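Section 3.1: Structural characterization of target chains.
Under the original work plan, the team committed to producing a structural model for every single-chain target entering the pipeline before any wet-lab resources were allocated. The record below documents one such target. The sequence was received from the expression subgroup and is listed exactly as submitted; it comprises 463 residues.
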Amino acid sequence: MDKLPIMPMDLRDVLRSVRMKAKYALFLGFVVVLVIIEKENKIISKVSDKLNLKQMPQSLYEVNSTDTNVVYSENGSLLSLSELDSAFSQLRTQLVNVTLQLGGNNPFPQDFPKSQRRHILLMATTRTGSSFVGEFFNQQGNIFYLFEPLWHIERTVSFESIGSNAVGSAIVYRDVLQQLLLCDLHILENFISPPPENHLTRFMFRRGSSKSLCEEPVCTPFVKKMFEKYHCKNRRCGPLNMTLAMEACMKKDHIAIKAVRIHQLEYLRTLVEDPRLDMRIIQLVRDPRAVLASRMVAFSGKYESWKKWALEGAAPIREDEVQKLRGNCESIRTSAELGLRQPSWLRGRYMLIRYEDIARSPLQKAKEMYKFAGVTMTPQVEEWIIKNTQASQDGNGIYSTQKNSSEQFDKWRLSIPYKLAQVVQDVCKPGMELFGYKLANDAEMLTNRSISLLEERVNFWVT
């Protein structure tokens, strides 16, 4: 039997067939993404399910404290979850490329905005001068600046039930930070205590330190006298309306957040690679001897044993306290080493800067930070820096951002006993060498301010 001749298909049928194949490819792609996301969410939820909301008594000390005293354990969990983030990002990128090659539309159109908005994270630890440096961005009118929003998470979430404090806290802080950078301030309502009512709260931590939360239209009219734990400094405002704050955030050109609770730079990779964000990370470091001296004043109760041991010859400092100091120094050092290695995902998005360099040349270093962030500095910022770094005295307290910075930055050398400086040098030596902090050989060298303990370094920051 002769074979029947193959009839040519109508061109429209051919095109229709091709389009159907492309649609099936896109559909398959979405299924893959959903499966991946679901797997990641299940892993994260296993951690999140163990988080217990807690109510903590807040003394006057706790209200002002930003000291975390987190002990970071060394185990495989941190690495495995970091690898998960990396794998998810790679698969997601591959899926986008495949669908584009098939002629389909971008399956994540909302991820590629045309906006030139910058998202700036000032990453530091307590008593490193981060409040002072944060003002460089707070004073810029087109930047929506938030002061320590992650404080609320630390005060309401218990990580003790999770196998690793570092892993649990890093995941929660990272995910909340991501939403805040996207102007989703409602995420904080899950952690503010007592909970906001109708998106209104009188308990936003240090609201007065964020100009964006104290200006119109966020500053609503003051109706009646009521207790407000954290109020605006220069004007009377009603309770903070989180929805109005979100709208104000969306209208600003850029967003900046200061955080002392983000310790592992590698966990920020998800944020850096999020196409909705244009991240710039500035890691601020300070001589750990100066940090300890400052913490002993600001958080006196927590360092009572240190002072007694140094001044009265009491029992030696507990080993767990020394290990806590070592862990803090190591987390700072490892993050800085990662940033300075310039991995592809961080290239042009990471800057390391020493507080001492800022204190000696505040305006110059501020301009460098703005250049790195890709934001044009306004004259108002320059005026603030000049006015607040040439004060005749060191402001009006330990939380002041007004000081004669060039004279104050190494004043700590006269207040810390050499015995304690030695402990810091012993456990923090690797980081001190990386950042260019010289070791003091004896008490005389420590207190002689004519001898610099700071090595001159070329700019750390990477473009």
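The CA atoms of residues 287 and 432 lie 7 Å apart.
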